[in-house]
Design a protein that fits this description.
There is one protein chain. It contains 2 helices and 3 strands; from the N terminus they run αβαββ. With about 70 residues, the protein is of the alpha+beta class. The chain has a 3-stranded mixed beta sheet, covered by helices on one side.
């Protein structure tokens, strides 16, 4: 999250997103989430405005503490 620290006073938000165990070709379809479910938290974070959180680690269940 060094980028988040460097960009703290700018409108740019830097967050990490974990889509979870998604059914993909790379895991031979053994994931438990659909691609759409895995994409949901990524899209949410990508659409944040300048008042959104920064320096967070997010899953679809919400932010994780680290």
């Amino acid at each position: 999250m060094s980028y988040a620290k460097e960009l703290w006073d700018t409108p740019i938000r830097v967050n990490a997103v974990d889509p979870g165990w998604v059914k993909t070709d790379i895991n031979h379809g053994t994931g438990i989430k659909s691609v759409e479910q895995g994409a949901a938290p990524i899209i949410t974070m990508a659409l944040l405005n300048t008042d959104g959180p920064t320096a967070t680690f997010v899953q679809d269940e919400g932010a994780l503490h680290w």
